[in-house]
Structures are given as C-alpha cells and as structure tokens.
Specification:
By secondary structure, the chain is of the alpha/beta class. It has a single domain, classed as P-loop containing nucleotide triphosphate hydrolases (Rossmann fold, 3-Layer(aba) Sandwich), CATH 3.40.50.300. The protein is built from nine helices and ten strands. The radius of gyration is 18 Å and the shape is globular.
C-alpha cells in the first residue's frame, strides 16, 4: 500500500475575466502517492499548470483543501506557505529562471541557504546532484548565459532538489528544449524517480508522458480519467500503445 503524500478535497480555482467568473479547476478530489511519477495531460487551457501550481503551494485555491502530509497547506498564510514550500516542494519550470549574475553553483546554494545554514553540507549535496545530472565542476563555475539550455534545465532540477523535497513538480520541463536535450532531462527525472523521488509533471508530449507510471487527463478543469502504466521500461511498445489508446478515449 503506497503512502499518500498529498491529497485534495473539492479543489476549485476561479479567475475573474472581463467581469465574468472563469472556473478553471472544478471540485477536484485527488491523491498523490509516495514514489510515483505522476503525469498530468490535457489540451491547452484544460487547467494543467493551474492544478500544478495549486498542488505545489505556488498558488492558492478558491475553494477546497490541499493536505500535504499532515499539513493543510491551503489554510496557511503566504509567509507560512513560502516557508513550507521551500522545505517540502521542488519546482522545475519550463523557463529555467537562473539568476544571471550568479554562477550555476551559487544559484543552487542560494536556494539551499533559504532552508539550511550549513553551507558545507549544501556544497556536498549540490556536488552529488551535479554529478548525478552530469554537470562538470567547470560548468558549475559558469554563469547561466555561458551554458546550454539542456545544462540550464538540469541545473534547474538540481536547484529543485537541493532541499530534499518530498515532491518534485515539473511544468513542461522539456517544452523549450530540442529533442536530444529534452531526452537528457527526461532521463534525469526518471533516474531520480527510480531512486524514490516522487515526481508530478505537466506535459503535452507523448514521449514525456510515457515516463510516468500514472497519467491523469484533465479536461475543462476536471480529471476525466487516469491510466496506470506501471514502472517505466525503456522501449516497451505496449506502454506506448496503452497510453495512446487511453488518450484517444479521452478525446486527445
């Protein structure tokens, strides 16, 4: 039996647009489990990123609750939510947002020092993570403008993991990358998941979605269905066929 890391009850999110209320998420009940690689798919405008931002504490719901472990994060004020998010959530963005005036290593340490004051320990952990994502010491000393998009995104993954989050959230992490560098990022995420890291990823890409063991399909702010793909195995044709059939059923 898998442990529940995060759950929502009646999660809803609305925005005011042109004087009218737009309901983006509608009464979502969801459980996310420890060790899973959960993928969220859906057409443009379905509410995928809005859901991801709510689950990660980057945004607050209009209605309903989000419980992360034993903490109802939807009840926290913004200061308390920021503190909680830094310690328990990692976030990988489509646009990497590394600070241009700092080296790659200093970008990671800056994120770590928000939670821990032990710089030596942070440097050791950063070094281990950089090794895991195949970023050399020479690259760590460079500034963001001096490295490739793939290196920057892998550095973004290191930054997201520096504080040992329970869940790593990723919003279209390969969306701005070419095919090869995107594959490197997917392999990196898969590798960390195989080591036990829980991952929740939004994507519109079939190749990326196949990395998940669980795929949720969002339509008009509602989870229309889900597909259990099991553990990722490279080259598993049946996995592709199962996901394709599921997405056709969902109207993809």
């Amino acid at each position: 039996m898998k442990n529940i890391l995060l759950k929502t009850n009646n999660l809803s999110k609305s925005f005011s647009s042109g004087g009218a209320l737009q309901h983006v998420l509608k009464n979502i009940d969801l459980e996310l489990y420890e060790g899973d690689f959960t993928v969220i798919m859906g057409a443009s405008g379905a509410g995928k990123s809005t859901l991801l931002y709510a689950l990660s504490g980057m945004d607050t719901p209009s209605l309903g609750t989000i419980t992360f472990g034993n903490t109802v994060i939807s009840d926290l004020n913004q200061d308390a939510l920021s503190v909680f998010r830094r310690s328990h959530c990692g976030f990988v963005f489509q646009q990497i947002y590394l600070i241009e005036g700092m080296s790659v290593m200093d970008n990671i340490l800056a994120a770590g020092l928000l939670v821990s004051k032990d710089k030596k320990e942070l440097c050791e952990r950063a070094g281990e993570l950089f090794k895991a994502v195949d970023i050399s010491e020479e690259t760590q000393r460079k500034f963001p403008a001096q490295i490739s998009g793939g290196e920057a995104q892998r550095a973004g993954i290191v930054r997201a993991l520096i504080n040992c989050p329970e869940i790593l959230f990723a919003d279209e992490p390969t969306g701005a990358l070419n095919s090869k560098t995107g594959l490197d990022v997917l392999n990196t995420l898969t590798g960390f998941n195989e080591q036990g890291q829980s991952v929740v990823m939004v994507t519109h890409d079939m190749r990326s979605a196949r990395r998940g063991n669980r795929v949720l399909y969002l339509k008009d702010g509602v989870i229309l269905g889900e597909c259990d793909l099991g553990k990722y195995v490279h080259g598993d044709v049946r996995r592709h066929e199962k996901l394709s059939a599921f997405l056709r059923e969902m109207g993809w």
